[in-house]
Structures are given as structure tokens and as C-alpha cells.
Amino acid sequence: MKPWSPSASSKSPLLNTKSNLLTMIKKLLPLTAVAALPFVAMAADKAPIELEYPAPFLTGTPVPIVLPNLESAGAPQPTVMAPAGVENIAYEKEVTSSDDFPIIGELELVTDGDKESEEGYFVELAQGPQWVQIDLEKEATVYGIGLWHFHTQKRAYVDVVIQFSNDESFESGVTTVYNNDHDNSLGKGKGTDLAYIETNKGKLIPAKETKGRYVRLYSDGNTSNEMNHYVEVEVFGAY
Predict the structure, then answer these.
(1) 118: helix, coil or strand?
(2) Which pairing describes strands 130-148 and 87-88: parallel, antiparallel, or unpaired?
(3) When comparing pLDDT for 145 and 27, which is higher?
């Protein structure tokens, strides 16, 4: 008697199923690749936001910076992706503040496009919790924020919170994109973001495609004194 060996017909129940499955997969692979093309194109249309830095200019004697939630000195800027061509839509937009009468400078300096930090280029608000607010004029999708508080002396600003809303009074529809208030002393919630040392490079903050017409930035003094300062705020978004 001849040893049993599978014939073509006896192979069909299992092996034909595998063969059919492999054939289907091979046919689907090109379709999967084609379906992925729009996503590849979308990724290719995005580019990292690159801040333009003013020249460094340091004066005075540094004050020790002591905070429990301080970012390491020299930490790199985060990579924030945005569609190609996205620009600073905060440029020359109206700025209001919790301090109607700044001690130094005018609120217009916050969005005038000038990032130098000597006197005449920054606004100083009173001590205690204060905010500045930028009206983008209509709802925008925001990808990143460039922020310069002050950079003629290394320091870190305390209780920095950045929020968006379509409500001018920020009583509803508020989205927080940055919060380094580690103990909720500002009352906007306990934040997990790290405070950072101010330099001429400012800080690039991811906005996570948040939508809103108004952006409000809080602070409560800094590690050198109790005042609040702003050199420039840039908002990278699209309408």
C-alpha cells in the first residue's frame, strides 16, 4: 500500500483558505497605501514653528532662581508643528489687561512685533496676579504661542497660565494650554507645566490646535521681584 499523501483536492479545505486570504491581503495592500496618501500629504504640509530671537542683552546682577517646578537651564524648545504658511496672527491686535494703568510702557508693546527688552520695549504691570488679553478679532485655530516676559535678566515668572476662549470675560468655554501654577495659588487649577528661565529665546508653547478668539496670559510676579512684565506675545494660528 502506498503511503498516504495529500492530493490537490485534499489540500483545498485548509490550504485554499490560506491561499485566498493571502491573495486578498495582496490585493488590499495597494488600496491601504493609497488610502494613507492623504495623511502623508497632510504631514508633509506641516512644518515646525521657528521663533525669531532678538539679540541677547543681559544687565544687572542675577538673583538666585528658586522654584520647585523649574525647567532645567538650557532646555530646548519643544517642536510644535503647524501648517506651512501659518503666521503670527496676534501682530498689532488689541491688548487689554487687568491693570488699566501699566507702571512702565503701553499695552500695545505686547503685540508690536519688537522683542528687544530694554526700557521702552516692554510693559510692566503692578504686583500681584495680573493678566494681559489679546483679541484675535475672530475665532482661530492656534498651533503655538511665542512668549517673552523679560530677558535683560535671567529670571522665572510665577503662576503663568495661558487660556483661550470665545468669551471675552473668560467665564465660559475656557481652554487652558499652559499652567505652571504648581500649587493652584492663582485659582485656575493645579498646573503640571514647568516654570522656565527667561532668555532672549523666550518660550514656545504648544497650543494643540485650540480654537478661540481671545487669549489671556496670567502671571504673579517673578523670582527677581513682584512685578509682571511682557515684551512680546506671538500667536501662531489660522482663521
Answers:
(1) coil
(2) unpaired
(3) 145
